[in-house]
Design goal:
39% helix
Length: 70
């Protein structure tokens, strides 16, 4: 008794997560997300880029979902 070796136990909260790489885009960037692109572009033309942040972000989100690194 006395000097027994100590086992280290892995803490379950330190489990590493692995990110899955984004899927390869199925089309060219110019053809992806036409719905959000059209609305975003129209807003920028009519009101200016500063007023269309939510639409710009929606288009970026769509592009990321399509596999583009935006």
């Amino acid at each position: 008794m006395g000097n027994a070796p100590v086992k280290e136990v892995a803490n379950s909260s330190t489990v590493a997560t692995v990110e899955t790489p984004a899927a390869k885009p199925k089309c060219k960037a110019c053809c992806a997300c036409p719905e959000t692109k059209k609305v975003r572009d129209q807003c920028i033309i009519e009101r200016g880029e500063a007023e269309c942040g939510d639409l710009i972000e929606a288009h970026k989100k769509c592009m990321r979902e399509q596999g583009f690194n935006i």
